UniProtKB/TrEMBL annotation, chain A:
It is found in: Cell membrane. GO terms for biological process: amino acid transport. The chain crosses the membrane at residues 45-66, 78-97, 109-126, 138-162, 174-198. Belongs to the binding-protein-dependent transport system permease family. HisMQ subfamily. It comes from the Bacteria. GO terms for molecular function: transmembrane transporter activity. This is Glutamate ABC transporter permease. It is a multi-pass membrane protein. Residues 1-195 form the ABC transmembrane type-1 domain. Coiled coil: none annotated. CDD domains: TM_PBP2.
From TrEMBL, chain B:
This is ABC-type polar-amino-acid transporter. Keywords: Amino-acid transport, ATP-binding, Cell membrane, Membrane, Nucleotide-binding, Transport. Its EC number is 7.4.2.1. It comes from Streptomyces phaeofaciens. InterPro entries: AAA+_ATPase (IPR003593), ABC_ATPase_HisP-typ (IPR030679), ABC_transporter-like_ATP-bd (IPR003439), ABC_transporter-like_CS (IPR017871), MetN_ABC_transporter-like (IPR050086), P-loop_NTPase (IPR027417). GO terms for cellular component: plasma membrane. It is found in: Cell membrane.
């Protein structure tokens, strides 16, 4: 459950984060304003509050069920929604700092051959920005993996939830804690190593 | 029959390709372009020279609106420069630009650099685009480097790729913004030769440069700028042997006597 939650949220937050970053550099003031406001609000709210809001606020008050029939599926989808909304703000900021490493001349050259703003961003600026922020993005993804534990708060049976149940039943607190901690290291360590390898491989030489 | 020929005559573009009329631009308090009037006809090679900070690069960059202007008009092939948007992108595709710092797309190979605009802007199919790109790379003498990345090339080679990238769009006019200023001396000539060939082939060119040799041999007209104004316009022969303004005399005496 933890892996599935992480994978879906990672994909979602990369997509949404990229869109947010695009908004923050767009020439349309309204989009820029929205992007800036979103990032500054969302990244300053504790994740627990966001996840609880998704569950209690969206589901219970507004009746958003994310097309799910039973309570467990609904909880899972809402948890993904909350994690995406939260992590995307960090992805956006990492990407935006990556865009600042791309020399202005790259965008000028792209515009000079007639590419539109979107094409310039998509074909020239973002590919280079991505490569320079793979390291920081690895941090975000590792944080995301660990943040999935917060989903336990709305009853999603991910690792922390299982751990709590097991501790209640078994009373072997230390051992169970250690096993779960090790489990997370097993999940996140390869992420870090893989991203490190990727960033070396894809590095843009100037 | 006669109707057709008349219509043709009407539609025929005038010979004035780039027309600037009383163009003004400020950078804050600095008046970088002051009442610039300049007309460049089809096939003409105009070299813009002048001391640093005289506004020559800015002038070059206003022509494809990489810099906006505060007042005046700029028209290319009879059409005024459009506002930011699709029309402007279309116009930029028709105006080739070569930068001082090359600005090749660092994450793409040399070949992809020359193909990108053809595929994404001109919607050429991939195969044709590659053929054309290879032909152009051959023309500028870097065909063997097609699959390398820009950072693996020398400055001179990069700049020639940049020229090929601009040519791939079949531009009506080419702008060169100090194309050799970032190059080691031994690489300047390989770039100038490509530009000279281009001039001989009849390309309309606006060249901002410090290469007086190029100005002498390839230019139809020399435009001398100082402090944001066009001080003098003349043929290269006239300008270099007999400059009229004191400002130009002073400038030439500083650069030609060493």
């Amino acid at each position: 459950m933890t892996v599935k939650l992480t994978a879906l949220s990672a994909v979602g937050s990369l997509v949404w984060g990229t869109l947010l970053a695009a908004m923050r550099v767009s020439p349309v003031p309204l989009m820029r304003g929205f992007g800036t406001a979103y990032v500054n609000i969302v990244r300053n709210i504790p994740l627990t509050v966001i996840i609880l809001f998704c569950s209690a606020g969206l589901a219970d008050v507004f009746g958003v069920t994310m097309g799910a029939e039973d309570f467990k599926v609904q909880g899972f989808r809402l948890a993904v929604l909350g994690l995406v909304a939260y992590t995307a703000a960090f992805v956006c900021e990492a990407l935006r700092s990556g865009m600042n490493t791309v020399p202005l001349g790259q965008a000028e050259a792209a515009r000079a051959i007639g590419l539109s703003f979107t094409q310039t961003l998509w074909l020239v600026v973002l590919p280079q920005a991505f490569r320079s922020v793979i390291g920081p993005l690895a941090n975000v993804l590792i944080a995301l993996t660990k943040n999935t534990t917060v989903a336990a708060a709305i009853g999603v049976a991910e690792a922390a939830y299982l751990m709590k149940t097991m501790i209640e039943n078994e009373a072997q607190t230390l051992l169970i804690g250690a096993v779960f901690a090790f489990g997370f290291v097993v999940l996140t360590l390869p992420t870090g190593l893989f991203m490190g390898w990727l960033s070396k491989r894809l590095a843009v030489k100037r | 029959m006669t109707d057709v020929s008349v219509a043709k005559e009407d539609a025929a573009p005038t010979d004035d390709l780039v027309v600037l009329k009383s163009v003004n631009k400020h950078f804050g308090a600095l008046h970088v372009l002051q009442d610039i009037d300049l007309t460049i006809t089809r096939g003409e090679v105009v070299v813009v020279i002048g001391p640093s900070g005289s506004g020559k690069s800015t002038l070059c960059r206003t022509i494809n609106r990489l810099e906006t202007i505060d007042a005046g008009t700029i028209a290319i092939d009879g059409k005024p420069l459009p506002q930011e948007g699709k029309a402007l992108a279309r116009l930029r595709a028709d105006v080739g630009m070569v930068f001082q710092s090359f600005n090749l797309f660092a994450h793409k190979t040399v070949l992809e650099n020359v193909m990108l605009g053809q595929i994404k802007v001109r919607k050429t199919d991939k195969k044709q685009a590659e053929e054309k790109a290879r032909a152009l790379l051959d023309r500028v003498g870097v065909a063997t480097q097609a699959d390398k990345y820009p950072a693996q090339l020398s400055g001179g080679q990069q700049q020639r790729v940049a020229i090929a990238r601009a040519l791939a769009m079949d531009p009506k006019v080419m702008l060169f913004d100090e194309p050799t200023s970032a190059l080691d001396p031994e690489m300047i000539n390989e770039v100038l030769e490509v530009m000279q060939q281009l001039a001989r082939d009849g390309m309309t060119m606006i060249v901002v440069t410090h290469e007086m040799g190029f100005a002498r041999s390839a230019a139809n007209r020399v435009v001398f700028m100082a402090d944001g104004r066009i001080v003098e316009e003349a043929t290269p022969d006239q300008f270099f042997s007999n400059p009229r303004s004191d400002r130009a005399k002073d400038f030439l005496s500083k650069i030609l006597h060493h």
